[in-house]
Structures are given as structure tokens and as C-alpha cells.
Design goal:
The protein contains seven helices and seven strands, in the order βαβαβαβαβαβααβ. By secondary structure, the chain is α/β, with parallel strands linked by helices. It has a single domain (about 5-250), classed as Rossmann fold (3-Layer(aba) Sandwich).
């Protein structure tokens, strides 16, 4: 019961296939009381997924492009809990023209949207809610490692994820004196609703399984990512902050693999 008695806010739950849903499920199993967030037309999906959890958590509205929602969220969390212990930031979005090999032609308006939703939102939610967080609290964001390499077709979302790593470090610097830890979990490719919108995802997941020393099953590793996030939210990492924890089967530590002719970009089977 790593999170016994802790109160955790979890963003990004859409369907039961969402990584954030697995985190919510694991957090509850480890004793946490949780609240979810959703917004707009997707809010009903979040509420439907919440009803599958035991007990069903409250769902609060948070559109990270609406500044008023942050103040409203803070007021609702303060009214419900007073103080709390953790945040899971699992929010990311890029317009279609910011992905798929269109890097050189993506307009600023699309880049701005991707950055605001996927990267700047971590800073906004952290600074809004930090005054309510207990000493020893943890913030965890979901990442896809782009700090040292460029991925095919990931384009401006890759840039946003690289910037997200930097935001984690600066938040760790500035929230550390308040005894709030900030870390990211860099997961390997996982089958989710969001992944279906990434061009070339099937090719990426096939190559990942071949190169990762421990192997990789993009349909069965959600729990591994969720358990790592729960551990980082717990008291078992009391002095770890500003870190990127890889949950990718060891893929990140291996040099470039030989190109397999059977796994070319056109092979989506």
C-alpha cells in the first residue's frame, strides 16, 4: 500500500486503455484517494471510465488552454481535500499538421497549440496547485524520450516532449525548497487512443520490440509504466527529483539497431 492515505490528482484519463487510467487503477490499489480531470466533449469519456474504477472518483473539469479552469480547479481541490500529495500530468496533443513528417512546414499556430497543451500545461498545473501540496508530495509527467534524438514522424510533438524534460528540471529546481518532487516517466510505445493518431506508430512499436534488451509488448506494458509512476508518487523516492525514469525495456541504452528490411516505414501490417 505505497500510497496509503495519500490524495492524488490524475489528468489524462480518457478510456480504460489510457496510460493514465492504469495509473489511476494502480494508485487506488495502493491505497490512494484520487480525483480525475477531463474537459469538453471528452469529459463524458473520462466520467464513463471513472465509473469503472473502485471506488468511482470525482471528475473535475480542466481545459489547460483556459486560464480560468486552473483557478477553479484549485478552489475545488482545496474545498475537497484542503491539502494533497500528488499530481499525474498525462496531457498531450498536437494538431495533425504538426506530425507525420511535416516538420518544416508546420505553422506557428499549430506548434503553439502543441506546446501549450503538452508542455506549458505542466508548469501551469504545478504552480497553481503547489501551494496545496504537502511536503514530500510528488508530481509525475508522462514522457517519450526526445532529449537526444529525433524520431520519424513525431516532429513537433518530439520538440514539445524534449521541452517537457526541461520543464521538469526547472520545476524540480523551484519546487524543491517546498519539498515537492518533480519527475518524468519515459515510456516505450504503448497502444492507446492517442497512439493511433501518431503516423508510423506501428512501425515504431515493431522496431522497439526487436531492439529493447528486455523485449517490449506495446499492448501489455501499461501496468509497468503505471507501477513506476505510483512508486515515484510514494515515499520510496524521497530525494529523487528532476529525473527521467525510462520504462522502455532498456531500449534507450542500446545504440542504433540495424535496419530490418521487413520493418520499413511502409510496413504497417
Amino acid at each position: 500500500m505505497l500510497l496509503q492515505g495519500k490524495k492524488i490528482l490524475i489528468t489524462g484519463v480518457l478510456t480504460p486503455q489510457s496510460i493514465a487510467y492504469y495509473i489511476a487503477e494502480q494508485a487506488q490499489q495502493q491505497g490512494a484517494e484520487i480525483v480525475l480531470t477531463g474537459f469538453g466533449r471528452a469529459l463524458s469519456l473520462t466520467e464513463r471510465s471513472a465509473r469503472r474504477l473502485e471506488p468511482a472518483p470525482e471528475v473535475l473539469e480542466l481545459d489547460v488552454t483556459n486560464p480560468e479552469h486552473f483557478a477553479q480547479l484549485k478552489a475545488k481541490i482545496e474545498a475537497k481535500w484542503g491539502r494533497f500529495d500528488g499530481i499525474v500530468h498525462a496531457i498531450g496533443f498536437a494538431p495533425e499538421d504538426a506530425l507525420g513528417g511535416n516538420f518544416l512546414n508546420t505553422p506557428w499556430e499549430s506548434v503553439q497549440t502543441a506546446f501549450r497543451v503538452s508542455t506549458f500545461s505542466l508548469k501551469e498545473i504545478a504552480t497553481t496547485l503547489a501551494p496545496l501540496m504537502n511536503p514530500g508530495a510528488g508530481i509525475v509527467t508522462l514522457d517519450f524520450d526526445n532529449t537526444t534524438q529525433a524520431w520519424p514522424t513525431y516532429d513537433w510533438m518530439g520538440v514539445c516532449k524534449a521541452a517537457l524534460d526541461s520543464v521538469v528540471r526547472y520545476l524540480a529546481r523551484d519546487l524543491g525548497p517546498k519539498q515537492i518532487r518533480v519527475n518524468s516517466v519515459a515510456a516505450g510505445p504503448l497502444v492507446t487512443v492517442a497512439a493511433k493518431g501518431i503516423p508510423g506508430f506501428k512501425t515504431l512499436e515493431k522496431r522497439w520490440a526487436k531492439q529493447a534488451p528486455m523485449g517490449w509488448d506495446s499492448r501489455a506494458r501499461h501496468d509497468a509504466v503505471a507501477k513506476t509512476c505510483v512508486a515515484l508518487l510514494s515515499d520510496w523516492f524521497p530525494a529523487t527529483s528532476g529525473e527521467v525514469v525510462h520504462v522502455d525495456g532498456g531500449y534507450h541504452c542500446i545504440g542504433a539497431a540495424p535496419i530490418d528490411p521487413d520493418l520499413e516505414e511502409g510496413d504497417e501490417g
